[in-house]
Amino acid sequence: MTERRLSKRGLALASTALVLAVALAGIGAAWVFATSSLSGLPKGPVLARAIERGKLVVGVRRYPRPAPPEAPTPPEPDGFDAALARQLAAALGVPLELVGLDPGAQETALREGRVDLLMAGVPAQSAPGIAAAPGSYDIGRGLVVALRRGKVQEASALRGASVCVGEGSGYAGAVSQRYGAQPRSYPSSVHAASAFMAGECAALAEDAEVLERLMRNEEWRFYKPLASDLRPPSEAAVRLPEGDAVSRDYLAAALRQWRADGTLDKARGARAGNLQLEITLLKDGFVCHS
Questions:
Q1: Cα distances (angstroms) measured from residue 205 to each of 180, 190, 199
Q2: pLDDT tens-digit series, residues 200-222
Q3: Which phi and psi (to 5°) does residue 88 adopt?
Q4: Tens of pLDDT along 114-134?
Q5: Between helices 245-261 and 45-53, what is the axis angle to 10°?
Q6: Helix 245-261 to helix 263-281 angle, to the nearest 10 degrees?
Q7: Strands 223-230 and 142-147: what pairing?
């Protein structure tokens, strides 16, 4: 086996990536809210099987984190999906197993029973044999930004324009319905930001908290807010096999509780911090490997 030699700069970047990866992992795992009010609710067959098995298996989005070109990283589970899956497993009192899935494999994994549930953002379309618990776990308002001196200078100019979005983002539907824009999907919000900064899209749509943090950075002075207060027209639903109304109702109750007790807000804040760090890495020579 031949050894790959990294340049000094590559080694420094890799070390930075490792430190940040540890920090990001800590952000995603440091909090679990009380879930006692859910403990007395009935569980249907899907959740009952997970409890009997002693493990909840949840399918989530995955993507490679920014890394030096010489040392690409493998895809890892999305931190936002994982944080909420962790909350659900804690409520059920069982360990969690995360299964990172590409978009085309998510529904197949659920139908074949390889995962109990899917927590992977907004589905591209409704699918036969798959149900969704009422309520959304992606509740943030969105923002659209564009190049300060680019072709798109006002929201009305978004009609027909390309807008970068992350896979499973509800803002894809929002910019399409509200402005007639053409959303272009990428494996993650970091990939979407990278593509936007590279000029692949006229604008970028993302959670406002994420973009507002980035706009405070010096390197983002070339961009400006274009459209605010986007609301996803479709829900980031927890999906499960059809025919289990009891488990569906339990999941709906969990979503209501997380909205009421601040869990969703906490998860959004952690996600914003994660993405700010990951996107900031792009200016230091890190790249998003597809």
A1: 13, 12, 14
A2: 999 999 999 999 999 998 889 99
A3: -65, -45
A4: 999 999 999 877 788 999 999
A5: 80
A6: 80
A7: antiparallel
